[in-house]
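User: For my dataset I need records formatted as: sequence, then structure tokens, nothing else. Please produce one.
Assistant:
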Amino acid sequence: MKIAIQGEPGSFSHEAALKLVPDAEILPCTLSAEVFAALDSGAADAAAIPIENSLAGSVLEHFDLLLHHDVMVVRETQIRIRHNLIAVPGAKIGEIDRVYSHAVALGQCRRFLAEHPAMKAVAFYDTAGSVKQLVSTNDTKAAAIASERAATHYGAEILARGIEDDAENYTRFFLVRRSAEAETDPAANKMSVAFTLEHKPGSLVAALSALSEMGTNLTAIESRPVKGTPWEYIFYVDFKIASGAEGTRALEALSSHCGMVKELGHYREALGAESGDAS
């Protein structure tokens, strides 16, 4: 299976893709929109996308892309985030004056950077991409923050391990496929849904009450503005289901209160997270 990811080989999404499908072939993409374009065109069989980080919150762009493409979430996984300071062979930590990484990764390593004031933080488009650039320039005065996999993949060295501020740092990933090829997991016990509401008082309460009356366990809710319609929103929710039939009833219950309801996928809940170097 060819899986598209946003980021370079060795990135955190690469790690997640291999956890979801161990023998997958990875198709790296620069932008998230390119990931979904590869899925639409058939260049990729699936996509592995981060949807939520326990510290940084939701990846809002990915909610929008899930809504506007004919795709379904078929699996999820969680991985613990572990950041490392990485440099080219021969570099010394006391001589590093620049550190490159994705802005989120830099923000999750503030304490380490504060303890090393000579290191200037520089935002880059991708964690693994920062290591790739580092190795290509062979700059011994620069470093990157990324996963152990990235260091190994590009032949770099880890100068400091586990430099993240918070060890309880996890990211949840979705495995996404084209709707026509999404197979139903008999053990699916979780569903993701998008819906819109009438712009009137109590509409959100009514929709959520319909789920509550069924005994549905809501696990996440996110809102996004409707483009071109100020002050109206699309709501994204995750909730537990005991069976496919319960999922169908939940969609029917929402439909009576919502202008639009779209199932984004039903899948098996990821239980816990492996300790690793991924995001």
